[in-house]
Amino acid sequence: MGDYVYREFFDSYAPQYMSEVFTTDSVREVAFLLDVLAPAPGASVLDIGCGTGRHAVELARAGLAVTGIDLSSGMLREARRAADEAGVQLELVEADATQFDLGRVFDAAVCLCEGSFGLLGDDDDPLAHDAAVLGRAFAALRPGARFVLTALNALRMIRRATPEQVESGVFDPSTLTECNVMKWQTEDGPRSLPLRERGYVPSELTLLCRTAGFTVEHVWGGTAGDWGRRPVELDEWEIMVVMRRPPA
Predict the structure, then answer these.
(1) Residues 6+ apart with CB under 8 A from 207
(2) 202 Cβ partners below 8 Å, 6+ apart?
(3) 248 burial class (0-12, 13-18, 19+ CB within 10 angstroms)?
């Protein structure tokens, strides 16, 4: 798949990632996750697309056994540094979220802030890619385990799209994908890469999760920094789905 584009981007951008405004609410977000997941003491949690480990570290502080996977070695280096600074243990694995198999199952899982879900390479099918992420998550969970996922909100994409963006291919209403050029600064100068992302309306996302085998318990507003047990707002960035692998 075309994930190499995102590997290149995140490897380069990793040292700057925690300066983003949406990364500042990790402690409160993890408190929310603990309330929703209700894990037993010492439970195992899988963080799919863990990035710099901002949620994984806080989950480990809460006494959970956390494994984080990510495509980017650069992001994993930042996660290891954060864990060392916090004095917590993390298992960190470089892996593709559409293909991983760690050989065991977990008591809970999270995939947050576009941690692989909705991030498409040029040759990725917009549904097959995310269905594969859900399939691997399902296989990695014990029966009865919960999974919290956030995805880009296509309602927002649709409401702000213009006919010119559709005509130019910036927004594709048939696949609910956006194509943007990400620009950032490095020590070697400015960088840019074309990135492709997929959004979802709540009904479609619910159906995709059910097709993967999950029981969907809640669909909430999931924009980073504003999580809550509340309906999805039309113009917010993300949707949150709380789902469960059915008991055996």
Answers:
(1) none
(2) 155, 219, 232, 239
(3) exposed
Radius of gyration of the chain (CA): 17
Indicate the number of domains in the chain.
1
Tokens of 202: 């709540």
DSSP states along 113-135:
SSSSTTEE-TT--HHHHHHHHHH
> Does residue 162 belong to any structural domain of this protein?
no
User: Does a structural domain hold residue 175?
Assistant: no
Amino acid at 75: M
DSSP assignment string, 175-229: TTEEEEEEEEEETTEEEEEEEEEEEE-HHHHHHHHHHTTPEEEEEEE--TT---S
Which residues neighbour 199 within 8 Å (Cβ) at sequence distance 6 or greater? 118, 151, 152, 153, 154, 155, 156, 157, 176, 177, 178
Question: At 97, which CATH number?
Answer: 3.40.50.150
| Whole-number Å distance between alpha carbons of 62 and 203 | 33
Considering 15-19, 138-142, 181-185, the range whose residues carry the highest mean pLDDT is: 138-142
Mean pLDDT of the chain: 92
Q: Which two tokens stand for residue 247?
A: 């008991």
Cβ atoms 134, 14 nearer than 8 A = no
The parent domain of residue 53 ranges over 4-152+200-244
Specify the pLDDT at position 1. Answer: 42
